[in-house]
Design goal:
Blueprint (H helix, E strand, L loop, with lengths): L9 H12 L4 H8 L3 H13 L8 H42 L7 H9 L1
């Protein structure tokens, strides 16, 4: 069976690296926290270079992906709503023209009657 790997919080890593930065020997800090000196050395190197950052978890990545899908769906629905609003306005204008006594469709008929 393999060894169980421990995972450390980013704040813990920063705290250990800060202790080394404060002047404590790497071996002593490693012994206090029951971590390998090579691991502490790696954390300290990343701390100095500014690359000791918190990476997003699998759950955060999944939520971000779902968020992107939902934003795309919202965009599609907004476009559909705009099309339906324009269609509704066009239908209202057509009804308004057709509901008057003299419409564009029957205007020619009324002109014939007036000329006779």
């Amino acid at each position: 069976m393999g060894k169980i790997r421990r995972k450390f919080d980013i704040e813990f890593k920063r705290q250990v690296a800060a202790a080394v930065d404060a002047g404590m020997p790497i071996n002593e800090v490693a012994r206090q926290h029951k971590v390998s000196p090579s691991v502490v050395s790696g954390w300290y190197d990343r701390f100095r270079s500014g690359t000791l950052i918190d990476r997003p978890t699998v759950k955060e990545k999944a939520l971000e992906k779902e968020n992107q899908k939902l934003k795309a769906k919202i965009g599609e629905l907004v476009v559909q709503i705009d099309v339906l609003k324009k269609q509704d306005e066009w239908i209202r204008q057509r009804r308004k023209l057709n509901s008057s006594i003299i419409t564009e469709k029957n205007l020619a008929e009324f002109r014939k009657g007036a000329e006779s």
